[in-house]
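Allow me, if you will, to draw on your knowledge of protein folds for a short while. I have a record of one protein: its chain in single-letter code and its fold written as discrete structure tokens. I should value your view on which stretches of the chain appear to form regular backbone elements. Thank you for your consideration; the sequence and its tokens are set out here:
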Amino acid sequence: MARSLDTHEQTSADESESDPTDDVYAPEIEGKQYRGTWYLPLPYDQLSEAPETDDYPTRGTGGTFRIADLPRVPRVRHIVGPSALMLGASLGSGETLFWPVLIAQHDWTLYWAFIIGVFTQFFINTELQRWTLATGESIFRSFLRVRQFWPWVFLIGGLVSLGWPGWAAGAAQVAVTALGLTGSVSAVGVSLANWKLIAIGLMGVIWCSYQISSVMYNAVEAFQITLLFVATGAAILLVFVSNAFTELATLPSNVLNGSSTIPSGMDLAVFLGGLAFAGAGGYLNLSQSLWAREKGYGMGNYQGRVKNPLIGDDPELIERNGFTFRPVERNLRRWRGWWRVIQLEHFLTFVVGLIFVATVLMAVSVRYASGTASGAITMWLVQIAPQIGGLGTVLVFVVLFIALFTTEYAIVESFVRNSADALYETYGRDADWELSRLFWRLLTSFVVWGILIILLFTAPFENQEPFFFLVVGAALSGIMMWPYTVLTLIINTTRLPEHLQPGWFRVVALWWASSLYGYFSSLLIGETLSEITGLGVFETTVTVLGSAPAGYVIWVVFFSVQTYAIVRSVLGKRRAAGTVESAELTNGLFS
């Protein structure tokens, strides 16, 4: 829904500093506007420009921010959406594939790593929304204000990690197994596996679904939330049908008595993929910023939404340089309120939902596939489903199919939305491209690309089951999370004013997150280079000491990056301290 605010109303809102303690939370009728998406256009050119002082975000290489009031704060129930999309994206990765198979292979001894991964991503994901909440700009625009090349780095990384249609291939494998359609069809001398035909059909369904709404985000949100409810309900029912709830009863003792180390001989690519996919992971996480803007969070309420050019609606403006607000008491209280509700939305939807569903599916896998040596999809279809039988088998097929399909849907959405924004900000805006048309063209191109990959699998990929592609994508996603976590930490502590910066608890959490993904990325890079070249000179060891010569170089890079990030964030926090009057009003739990 879009509603304009005339110049007189906005000027009054900007200048007034009376009654700072009231008018913080939005009334019910206003809050309900966020249940779809809400766009509130302002007369941008008539707004005051923010001066380059300690009260406002640092411009960097970008232009000047415009001043407007921070919108009133809706209730948590009004803004559910972005985190539900992230949870939906997690269904076919961590929840049903990586962690159930890891726990089945190693019992509950790795459950600690899953919990750590989920909470680590909670802090990463919410910090990715901070710049958008404060300015209305996307995370890619904030990267661009640092250096021109950063959006390109993550765009390329996104294509490499998400360009393999492993989830559509996995969903198709589930479908042909459930329907007894294994085999192939032949026409004009060409033979094509049935699972490939179904995978291509699923990619077509994803493309068509975008054509039913004028605001493309709305179609995604409705589709994902519906599938989320169906898959979650089926997973819960599966636990009782399979009697796996008995495993849950022993979970506390198994976790407390288990080891807190990584099992020897474990594949690092799979473990790093598990950490990345204790949630959506990688390039997908960057979408939190764009989904928050589409939903209308904070200053993103004043930025336009990506419309469907085929529907015929006029495009909405997404300003190159965003907005900021004066640090008066009313706005500071609103900021604290906004930060509270987006944390609650993400915690109650993403964290609680992910831990609950993934844990019950782990219980099923431990009960029926303990010690498995199979990939995740084979484990569910070949080992677990036949043992349960009857309704349980049907539920396994339903959960797996929906989980994999909804994740492929989220991958298409995330890659296209992220890449469209990155291309638009780095090049398309100056070339007079229209973001909505760019989005639609990328959507079509990415779907066609996925279909071609499905059709043209060649050695060595042809003999690999779809789970192979999921492991490759997940490991690359884990590696990508290291640099963008570091970059987000530096931006939020050096480019934002005191009242908008993360508190020390969150700063330490991001130190931990970047160290976690950087450490395992360094191990995986060393191991991969050793395997590719056949040279042990790249070997990196878990203890660092004892690494090969080139392995030590990898560790030097890791420790240098981490030291730089910590020092920059500490200096940024110290320089900002005491520069904004009443900044303490924004302090709160996990501020």
